[in-house]
Fold these 2 entries.
Entry 1:
Amino acid sequence: MDKKEEKEGILWKLFWAMFALSACTFGGGFVIVSLMKKKYVEELGWLKEDEMLDITAIAQSSPGPIPINASVILGYRMRGIIGALVAILGTALPPMIIITLISFFYVEFRSNPVISVALQVMRAGVAAVIFDVVINLAGNVWKTKRVFYIGLMIAAFIAKIVFGVSAMAVIFCCLAAGFLDLFLDMGKSGKEA
Amino acid sequence: MVLLRLFFSFIQVGLFSVGGGYAAIPLIQNQIVEVHKLMTLEEFTDLITIAEMTPGPISINSATFVGNRLAGVTGAVICTLGCVLPSFFICLALAYVYYKYRSVSGVQTVLGALRPAVVALIASAGLSILMLGLFQAEASEIVLSDFRVIEFLLFAGGLFILRKYKVNAIAIIFGTGVVGTLAYSLMP
């Protein structure tokens, strides 16, 4: 009985957490991923940081909206297929409700000066949240003290910002680097054996 | 049966938009404006503006908007369902494979190289939004004289509070919204 209640409790928590995160993800997939990291890794302790990064990579390289992809994987992790369904619902409902409300008076919405100022200044808050998450994440990559990982991180950042390489291409290049690392590793341990 | 056709249109959008919101825009435009002629290009541009101003993925926003217009809430639900269906099955399969094999040491080695890349991608997304906030322009076309002091103070203050106290991220985002709007209304 207690176990069943606990399971339902997690589903509710999952739904409301996704609902709240989705309601304030201005600015694309990586914003919601930063918020998810804060919520599920730091606040609730449901996931390990590495796991969240893996989920992000999978969500980014699968077709479909990144927030939806990430919630399917995260929901599946917590409570299987039901968890995935609950997480999708939590993520999809806020934009559906907001767009439905706005579609009744969207001309007024688009030209309202207060709304446009609020949306503009909120970007500063969103940026602060992402930077907070990035400082922690980059610090942990730094702590591995592996030149290979730190180099990959810097190279990926420069490729994206300076050369405008797509996120997909960055992920696939680093995946290739990972396989290379694996083969070098196997070569080494083969010699030792 | 427009609704059923639209359902399949949004399945295609969900299936072929790899790499986030902006990749989906041309696909949605093709389906809604060119194939089904449900909107003029001008209305579609308005829709994209609204989608960018509101939370949520662009494809879900457009599916809701188009569906609503055609058949009210039912339409919105059907179109959104089409949009998330491919994600659901594909990511469920990937999640299954990931959780089955992730503890294998070779898999860990490969994923290890992927994580720094993800950190870099999140960082670059953060930088783009910061530039958009501070200069109201993309990172590649900023003009230094457009620098906005209020947004900078909000960013610095928000980051300081987040680092120093464990504050809820959502509170920070809405907090900057309220404080910033007040600041702009007090000094025009």
Note: Chain B touches chain A through 101 residues (CB under 8 Å).
Entry 2:
Amino acid sequence: MRTLKMLKYILISLFIFIFTDISAQTVVLKKNEVKKEQSGISFGIDIAPFIMLAFQPERKGTAFIGRYRFKSNWYIIGEMGFANVNFDKSSYAYKSNGGFLKIGMDYNFFKSKKPGNNDNITAGIRYGIATQSHQSPRYTIIDDYWGDYTGSIGLSNVTSHYVDLVAGIRTEVLKNFYMGWTLRLKTLISANTSNVLEPYTIPGYGKGDNNVNLGFTYTLEYAIPFKK
Amino acid sequence: MKNIYYLISAIVLAVIFGRCESMGDICLSNQNAAQVGLYTAHSTSDKDTVLTELYVQGVGNDSILYENVSTSDLFLPLAMHTDTSAFTIKVKTLLDTIWFVYKRNLDYVSGDCGFAVNIEIDTIFFTGRFIDSVAIDYPYVKYNENIENVKVYID
């Protein structure tokens, strides 16, 4: 139910953006204007984890993206990041440190007639692998009759594999500087745990309890200016 | 203008994701209790029976679980620190003791709800003043399961 509500808001936002974006670009290409080629390589940072800190202060992380345009509308994408979780609530305390690596491709559907317009509407796929070490320094199971049961679970490692289906928008806001956001449908392939403790979150994936997660990135990128 | 729309839509999406992801699961009590049904021993098929003036207390615990009630089923919390829990069951002037012997397994419920101890009832002993016999119907006492575990037949 929560996922459906989220999807509804996302689709409305996406529709509003695409409509305003396309209506803003009804410019006719003049005869002598030359369409500027977009650079082949760009690097950026995902600032969504910093925004999410306002809602989930227990989760800290950062992620970086690299993009290489190998055909006119095709991009090879590499992403990497780090994630740290630390909380202590009445039922249990939890600590996790880890990182992720994703590799995949994007296809650009957006073909602007406006000269020098390098905006993109993309869809793509990522394969992700994450490793993390985590522990529960304390857990408490409330028992009002016999007394609470407490214990701890020591440090262990988890390796997870997942796939992201990605749709996004990317626009050049200043010369060679891009802003972009993506929506992601993430599917967990496997998460191998060695004891009873399951990962609260998986780096680059989100909540470990869910077999499917919705994700969001908001990237700032710099395109290295060179001609192919 | 386009960039402003862009920025606003990105912030709106971030807020939606942040709020939705921070909503947690609804957690139940992680304390596990064996569900015990009371049945008459004087019937060829299972017929529940209501005991009146019933008192139930854990052995070694000062708190009374049931005090002067009439009921046909009991919820007996099994201790998570030990492999045996015992209860005294008093009906009017008759008093029986029942022991549950079980295995315990720590189980991860969810990121929001933490852990529970799942129990597998192995054996039940009892004194036979008014209890005729017992049967383990479903030995597993698990989080978020509502299944009768034990049938106690009353003489």
Note: The two ends of chain B are 84 Å apart (CA to CA).
